[in-house]
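Example record

The entry below shows one chain as it appears in the dataset: sequence first, then structure tokens.
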Amino acid sequence: MAYADWLAIYDRSYEDPPSTNIAECPDCGARELRLAFVQDTWNPERGVPRFWCGSCLTGIFFCGFTMPENATVVSAAEIPNFRIISPDD
């Protein structure tokens, strides 16, 4: 499990959010990946992405980005607690 693997899958998911759950989790191999954005309260076109596996609850996150078309927008309360993979892992 490497941060670079997570980042590569995230990049593909960001380009096509509906296809996120097609890819396998770099950690456990499950096809349970989720990409959701917590919308910025000051700029509704931006959001904070959260990218995780619903099976092993591992994932990555970033600071705010412009949200892609077809993005899933949720409240912060809807994001489960997941173990964060850092670039140093």
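Notes for this example: DSSP finds one helix and six strands in the chain. The first strand starts at residue 33 and ends at 39.
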